[in-house]
Amino acid sequence: xxxxxxxxxxxxxxxxxxxxxxxxxxxxxxxxxxxxxxxxxxxxxxxxxxxxxxxxxxxxxxxxxxxxxxxxxxxxxxxxxxxxxxxxxxxxxxxxxxxxxxxxxxxxxxxxxxxxxxxxxxxxxxxxxxxxxxxxxxxxxxxxxxxxxxxxxxxxxxxxxxxxxxxxxxxxxxxxxxxxxxxxxxxxxxxxxxxxxxxxxxxxxxxxxxxxxxxxxxxxxxxxxxxxxxxxxxxxxxxxxxxxxxxxxxxxxxxxxxxxxxxxxxxxxxxxxxxxxxxxxxxxxxxxxxxxxxxxxxxxxxxxxxxxxxxx
Amino acid sequence: xxxxxxxxxxxxxxxxxxxxxxxxxxxxxxxxxxxxxxxxxxxxxxxxxxxxxxxxxxxxxxxxxxxxxxxxxxxxxxxxxxxxxxxxxxxxxxxxxxxxxxxxxxxxxxxxxxxxxxxxxxxxxxxxxxxxxxxxxxxxxxxxxxxxxxxxxxxxxxxxxxxxxxxxxxxxxxxxxxxxxxxxxxxxxxxxxxxxxxxxxxxxxxxxxxxxxxxxxxxxxxxx
Lengths: 312, 224
Fold this sequence. Notes:
The complex is a heterodimer. In chain A, helix 1 packs across helix 7 (219-259) and helix 7 crosses helix 8 (263-272). Chain A has helices at residues 26-65, 79-92, 104-115, 143-152, 162-204, 206-214, 219-259, 263-272, 278-309, and strands at 66-71, 96-101, 128-134, 156-159. In chain A, 68% of the residues lie in helices and 7% in strands. By secondary structure, chain A is an alpha+beta fold. The A-B interface holds A 5, 8-9, 13-16, 18, 20, 22, 207-208, 210-219, 221, 309, 312 and B 49-53, 71-72, 74-76, 78-79, 83, 85, 89, 91, 93-95, 97-98, 101-103, 105-108, 111, 115-116, 119, 123, 128, 131-132, 150, 154.
């Protein structure tokens, strides 16, 4: 007959998977909330920087492909003939995809918001415009066009938007640098919070640490326990924060599609593009959340090691 | 195995709590550490466990000068020592089984490899039906036995026990003492801190280390 008292209990009958540091505590929950908020803000910052950076690339691409020729009216000369001549010169210049002259009525329409309807431009010395689209490979190659205009249409001047482009560059770079600084500050704040939480957890687990030392646990083992504990908290917090940020950007993309028909929506789309992060953007959010969770675990391990060094 | 040479200990700039300690614990020996409450028994046990550094003198343990040991070496030495605390020091969020298995777990051993060993020891100390219980629901005697089982699970070369029978009735105290005697017979050196004279009298052959006025006197036991 089998003696049940001598059998080894199976897995299902033996509780044996408890982490050495209690999983749930008020301090742990507070840290999860802090990490979630910090991750959310960090992901918003990173996503915002990506959107601005992509939008500024698009602005730069659009603007640098276009150059404008201004035809100043000359007394006693037919401005329409000057415009046609300059457009002809431009369209034949190397690297030019096409040259479109704004007609008199189009120019009036452009100025209507400022000057009102029904203005006769012929009575005013307002330059006429020709928009020149460059081939993608010849964006910087404006010298042949400039030379041809100087020789055959001296009343025309070429504006390649360099000043505007450099301002765009400066503004976009400033936004990205500001976002990077904000991101760094958030990481520092989060690291400080993790530091406080780790020291608090160590103080709360002083007795556990003592017992672990007495039963022969190495510092690396104890630090590993804290690292796992804080990595779990970090993953939970970063998951919540990163998930919320991903949801925010997804909702923002849907909202921008819905708002695209309105004038405000068009303005926003001009500034930030379609407000769609795309796979790389969402990948960046996942990377930020993962890095924050990893950083939480690593920081706690380093702090625990440093604190254990002074204990016997 | 363990030797104290002119060991003294003071906290900060205060007076020495213990001084001029000169004694040795031989392998496979059995001794009581006794003295009035507050005399320094627990302090002496902590010195033996290397959880306190002496202010002066030298402690040699398992052939090494304790002052020259690094943290990893101290850890290795502690794995050769079993310790039973006066207040048990069981981890309240771990089951009795997990508490007893703790020394093996921190060594990185696989749970499946030591489960039979731990279960057998738990049954031997009468906790076979309390393996999944958490310490807060254990009685004082059960906690005591769990703490003792945790100290014994690694088959230590040296066992330090601080008032291991202080919280149990006399019959259970005798039973627990028999555990230590069995362990001693299997080759472990045993040091039991107690101020229970009647308990010591039952083991007249055991050596007595008596702490008083910060000093230690050694009385050899009766020959068996």
